[in-house]
Structure formats: C-alpha cells, structure tokens
Amino acid sequence: MTMTVPDERGYFGRFGGRFVPETLMPALEELDAAYAQAKQDDRFREELQYYLAHYVGRPSPLYFARGLSEFLGGARVYLKREDLNHTGAHKINNTMGQVLLARRMGKRRIIAETGAGQHGVATATVAAMFGLECAIYMGEEDIRRQSLNVFRMRLLGAQVVPVTSGSKTLKDAMNEAMRDWVTNIATTYYLVGSVAGPHPYPVIVRDFQRVIGEEARRQIQEQAGRLPDYVIACVGGGSNAMGMFHPFLDDEEVVLIGVEAAGHGLDTPLHAATLSCGRPGVLHGSLSYLLQDDDGQVAPVHSISAGLDYPGVGPEHSHLMEAGRARYVAATDREALDAFKILCRTEGIIPALESAHALAEAVRLAPQLSRESIILVNLSGRGDKDVHTVAKEMGVSLDE
Amino acid sequence: MNKIEKRLREVLARGEKGLIAYITAGDPDLATTVELAVAMGEAGADVLELGVPFSDPVADGPAIQAASQRALAGGVTVRGIIRAVEQIRRRSDIPLVLMTYYNPVYQYGPGRFAADAARAGANGLIVPDLPPEESGPLLEAAGDNQIDLIPLVTPNTPARRLPVITGRARGFIYCVSVTGVTGERESIMTDLAAMTDGVRSVTPLPVAVGFGISRPAQAAAVARHCDAVVVGSALVNTVAQKAGTPGLIKAVCEQVRELKEALTAREVQGVAAL
User: Is B179–A171 a contact, with Cβ atoms under 8 angstroms apart?
Assistant: First the structure.
C-alpha cells in the first residue's frame, strides 16, 4: 500500500491541496521550504527532542488498563497516556514542533484557533516559554463551555479573541485565524492545531504527532511482545489519530479505528461525524470530507466535546478511509459519557471527553474479543477541563 | 474580447475609470437584488459584482460576512441566484461577475456551474480561495462557456507568481489593495503603483483595484494607478442600513453615482492606462 503521501501539491490521493486566498500562497510556500529544511537539520531534530523529553515529559507511558480490561471482560486494553504530557493533551507535541519552526523563520507573533482550548493552551504555553506574542481565536460558544482553559491561556499571557461569527465554534475560530493571518502575514506564524488546513499543514502536524504512534508501537512490543490487533483514537480534525495511526500504516494486520462524534445520534442533525455522514468539499484550505448542505454551505455540528465539534476532517483521514486502510465509526454523547465514567471508576483516570469517544469504541469492542486480543487506545487528553460539562450532564451544580 | 474587458475599454476610451460595484445576492432578498442590480447599472456602475454567499467566507471582513449570513438565513441558494442573474440580464446589459468561494462551485459541479451561470447571462467569476494551482477544472469549464475567470493578485505576490496567475486570465486582473480581508479602511498603505506596474508588465488586461475602498475621493486616488476600482463593503453597509425601507435603492444608487463621478473627474484621467 502506497502511504508515502502527499504528492508535491499536497494531495493524499484525491484529498488535500491548497485552496486559500492568494495572500497566503507565498506564505505557504515559505513554510513548506522552511519545514523541508528543518526536517533535514540535525540541530532542529535534537532541539525538538530535547524539549519533548525535558519540557513535555516524553515518552508518555503506555499503560495496561487492567481494571478496565477486567471490567469489560474481553480484550486487553492498553492506554497511550498522552494525558500525562505537559498541558494535559497530545496537542503540545505539535505546538512544540511548530514553535521551533516559527523561531527558525524569524516570526515573533503566533496565532492559533482552538475548540476545547487544549490547542490554545498548548500554543500559549510554548509562546510563553519562548517569549513570543500570542493570540488565540476561540468561538464564543466554546469560551462559555471551556472557561477554565480560557483562564489558563490568559494566565500564560495569550490574548484570547472571542469569535462571534457563524456557529461561534471551532470552524469559525479557524476562519478568523485565517483572516488574521491574511492581514498580518509578514510578522505572524499561524500554528494550525490539527491535520487540517492547506498544504503543508496536514503533513507538518502529522509529522510532529507521529511521536505518539512511534512510541506506542515500540512500547506495546516491549510490554505485550507483539503489535496490537486494534488501534483506536478519536477524530475531530484528526491530529491525535493521525499521529497514532501513521506508524502502524504498514502493519496491515493492525486494524485502525477512528471514532467521530455522533452527538445526539447519526440519525439527527446534531452530530459531528464528518467521515460517517459527509461528502467531499473544500473548507479551510483543503479538499476533504465535509458536513454540508446540498448547496455546499457548511453544516452546523454538535458534540458534547468541544474538541470534536468540527464539520471538516484532515484530508489524510479521507484518504485512509477511501483507501480502506482505516475504519471510521462514531460514538454518541451518551456513549462517550458512559465511557468517561467507566474509566474514572476502573482506572482512576479522568479522560478528556474527546478521548472518551475513543474509549467508547473500546467499551463496545472489547467484550466481543478474546483475552488474547489487544486494543490500544490513544488517551489523547485528560478531563479536568470537562468536569463542569460532565457535572451539568449529571445534574450536579458546581457553582456556589 | 468578452463583455467585461470590452466594457472597461470603452470606459477608458471615454477618459474615465471603471466602477465595479459589489453587492451580496439575496441581501435582503433576491427580488431586491435584481432591482438593485438594474438600478446600479443605470446609476453608473460599469461592472456589477454579485456575491454568492458562502457560510465560511475567509477572505471577507465583517460587512460581507454579515451580508452573507443574512442572505443564507433568508434561504438564498445558488440556483436562486442564477435565476436572479437571468432576470437582471433581461433588463440590463451591465457586465456581471459572480464572486463566490470554491465549495459552492465544487458542489454544484464546476462544469455545470460555469455553463448555467453563462447561460443565465453572467460574464465572469471570481473565486478568492482558488489559486491558479487549483483552478484547472473551473478554468477549463469557464473557457468552454465563454465566462471569464478573474484572478486576484495581492501586495505580497512575488513577481515569479505573476505570469502563473495572469497567464490564463480573462476580463481583468483584480489587484487586492491590502494584505487583508474585504472591508472599509481609512487609508491604503500599499504601493499601488508598484503593484499595478508589475501586473501590467505581464498582461495587457485591464487592472482593477479593490478591498478597503469606500469613499469617492479614495476611489479617485486609487484610480490614478489602475483602470477600474472595486467598491463592495461600503455598498453592502448601505444595503444593511436601508434594508426594508423604500429608500434602499435610491441610497445605494446615490452612492454609486458619487463614486462614478469621482472616477470621471479630470484628476483621474491623467494616467492613461491602456
């Protein structure tokens, strides 16, 4: 299977490309050249390695979830503990890589979009560490449901810019970040948080997140003596899933499962399951699956998890689905909440609601498998940020 | 030579500069859009640019974003807009350009979109998120249907990209006056002369400048460096303010007339462009 994509125009099969205003084209070419050079530079790789080890805390553990596995009564479930990274999610793998790239390019101002706030926090964190100016675009609706992360970003010195256009969520934050970039192109580095956006972002973000899968592949062989049967990760834009899947692509016996947000159910309009229910379209600079109406207007989406509440998906996921290499399923808000609670009780780990969607698929799958089977779940983030949302769902008030 | 370029050359031959006036289709409704388009042509607009709204217009500032959302909330569709173009064309011979983003075109099908738009009477297309590297299918369809795909050049476009962008262009070249999104601005800092000179060195097509231009004096100043000026957000704001009142069409036309007057004044005639 030919997985050494994309081509030089940024196409993964028929997906990807560079659908952006002309102002951004020279900047994307500049970024492409700078990244190609950085990738070949030992000093860049060593610098990134240093910060990943000593600042982020890598490698992150691979943990055999004995309590969860016994509770589910079937396959053995292993968790890749990205929740234990500095700032509590996988997002910092990418922001650390890209901030080093921005510094090489001489950019002094960093902008980013954020949904749940995890990418915003991870961006604000590296910007603070390197003394760079930082603005984070965040939908008003997300600001409301993720107030803890908003405060964290402000503590870290970032300006959080509320986005009031459109659905006031992640896609609108990305629109606004692109408008800022178009306006401040000379001084500003746009630090995209997922494997979405125009070429070369889907490649850059994938490459910086690959460390998840590279470590996990080595760790599972050390601990279990073999590769897993299933690898499961949640998919919004799809960066944690792509980082986890990519090193397993050539291991054809390993089944890769991406879990999208089914919200209130795929038979309702209130979901964010792009690959399950969408069709190809162009949003945020690339051609990929998209939730949209007949006229090509982007559809409003819903998920209990702000990080999955996105109508698009990275182009390489569209490619992996059409090539038949990865399978994409969806978990409802309810299933994610149930999995969230199960992990709290069986393992003493509070997962992010995003990651709880991946867990929900493991909860469904594990009991159907034998004890010899191995499921590897990417626990992409921790759930402290979601405690308010979960309390509300459980009918508990945390306010005085 | 197609209708758009022909019209702009006629305007230049009279010693004037062209006015390209933008409104968003379906804001406040398509019936009003048709009336506005016809009246704006009579008031002095040389080319009409009709926005086909998209839910996520990344190249647009607040005024056109809001107009797009109003139009979409009112239920406007691509098919409805093409029918409106037909109605405009029955009553006016103003050259008509559709401005939209690529996804509505992609969903409609680039071939069918170009064919239906041309058949209805549209003369040009502007798709700001479709750089030359991605424009192959639409460019081919546009060529087959005698509809001009008008490209954008920005202040940061390097010289080496100019031939790629303008090589297969028709109608005119749209120079974006600022690195930024659409919307009214107090002043325009870009060295317009350098940009338009660069464009003229690679193409004989007329050169228009847009983004940020709202007032007649501003239009006149910009016009010294180009063949036509695009005004959008300022007109869209007037539509928003006057929507639902009997004075809507009169107010927009008054603005068009003032802009066109400024582009006919002696000061802008100095730089004979073509």
Answer: no
Interchain contact A178–B (C-beta under 8 A): yes
Q: Which residues pair with A139 in a beta bridge?
A: A163
Three-state SS for chain B is CCHHHHHHHHHHHCCCCEEEEEEECCCCCHHHHHHHHHHHHHHCCCEEEEECCCCCCCCCCHHHHHHHHHHHHCCCCHHHHHHHHHHHHHHCCCCEEEECCHHHHHHHCHHHHHHHHHHHCCCEEECCCCCHHHCHHHHHHHHHCCCEECCEECCCCCHHHHHHHHCCCCCCEEEECCCCCCCCCCCCCCCHHHHHHHHHCCCCCCEEEECCCCCHHHHHHHHCCCCEEEECHHHHHHHHHHCCCCCHHHHHHHHHHHHHHHCCCHHHHCCCCC
Spell out, as residue ranges, where chain B has pLDDT lower than 70.
267-274
- Catalytic residue check, B60: yes
Q: Which of B59, B65, B156 sits opposite A165 (nearest CB)?
A: B65
Domain A57-88+210-394 fold? Rossmann fold (3.40.50)
Q: Kindly name the residue from A82, A113, A260, A361 that is annotated as catalytic.
A: A113
CB atoms near residue B91 (< 10 Å): 14
Q: pLDDT of B227-259, one tens digit each?
A: 999 999 999 999 999 999 999 999 999 999 999
Q: List, by residue range, all CATH 3.40.50.1100 domains of chain A.
A: 22-53+90-201, 57-88+210-394
- Per residue in A336-347, pLDDT tens? 999 999 999 999
Which DSSP category does A286 fall into?
A: E
**Cα–Cα distance measured from residue B268 to residue B12, given in angstroms and rounded to the nearest whole number:** 11
Contacts of residue A185 in chain B, CB cutoff 8 Å?
Answer: 156, 179
CA distance A347 to A336: 16
Structural fold of domain A22-53+90-201: Rossmann fold (3.40.50)
The answer to whether the Cβ–Cβ distance between B107 and A292 falls below 8 Å is yes
Asked if the peptide bond before residue B163 counts as cis, ω within 30 degrees of 0, the response is no
Instruction: Please name each of the domains of chain B with its CATH number.
Output: 3-268 (3.20.20.70)
User: Chain A within 8 Å of B22 (Cβ-Cβ)?
Assistant: no
ipTM: 0.94
CA distance A124 to A92: 10
Mapped onto helix, strand or coil, the DSSP state of residue A330 is strand
Q: Do A165 and B107 touch (CB under 8 A)?
A: no
